[in-house]
Task: inverse folding
């Protein structure tokens, strides 16, 4: 099922839509917690702190948007309040694992250098994906005159992508070659997640 068609099905049903918002909120929260978990207190930068704070805010903002559909819906991230809960958690965790493995094998990175490089490339891949999903989602929301909006997230995600490119250029002169490898890994995981979302919506 194409993304726009899938999103239209989701937006048509408030209960499913609430679970989708909760699912996106969880993904933003997982991303924020991964940034914080990999952060080295002695070498924390403005960019890393800003990015973690914004990802947490996105998780909160998406959670808050649920109240526009149903104030009592999706109080937690328990499986019953998510769409494709296993795939949703697997997607980011697997991307992080496979990216770290790639960097270890290809560039022989270890320790904090490995964590930071994985942060840059995973974040880049996720921001590239967000730059596709959120604008299409907003377009569907607007066409349906939905009370939900993700416009503020779109602007910040675009800023994150620009920041990651600047950092990646510093990380390696061949960053684009490495990024292509991670994008390919992310693409497979994303399509698997989309398939599971489609099955959940069609069930």
Result:
């Amino acid at each position: 099922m194409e993304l726009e068609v899938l999103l239209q099905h989701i937006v048509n049903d408030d209960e499913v839509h609430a679970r989708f918002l909760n699912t996106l909120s969880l993904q933003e929260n997982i991303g924020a917690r991964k940034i914080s978990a990999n952060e080295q207190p002695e070498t924390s930068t403005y960019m890393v702190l800003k990015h973690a704070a914004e990802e947490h805010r996105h998780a909160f903002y998406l959670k808050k948007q649920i109240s526009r559909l149903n104030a009592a819906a999706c109080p937690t991230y328990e499986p019953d309040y998510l769409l494709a809960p296993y795939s949703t958690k697997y997607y980011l965790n697997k991307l992080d694992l496979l990216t770290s493995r790639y960097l270890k094998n290809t560039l022989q990175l270890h320790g904090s250098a490995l964590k930071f490089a994985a942060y840059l490339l995973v974040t880049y891949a996720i921001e590239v994906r967000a730059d596709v999903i959120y604008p299409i989602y907003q377009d569907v929301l607007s066409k349906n005159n939905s009370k939900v909006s993700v416009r503020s997230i779109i602007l910040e995600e675009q800023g994150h992508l620009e920041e990651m490119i600047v950092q990646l250029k510093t990380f390696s002169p061949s960053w684009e070659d490495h990024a292509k490898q991670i994008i390919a890994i992310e693409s497979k995981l994303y399509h698997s997640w989309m398939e599971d979302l489609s099955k959940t919506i069609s069930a």
Notes: Residues 13 and 121 are 35 Å apart (CA to CA). The chain has a mean pLDDT of 92. The chain has seven helices and no strands.
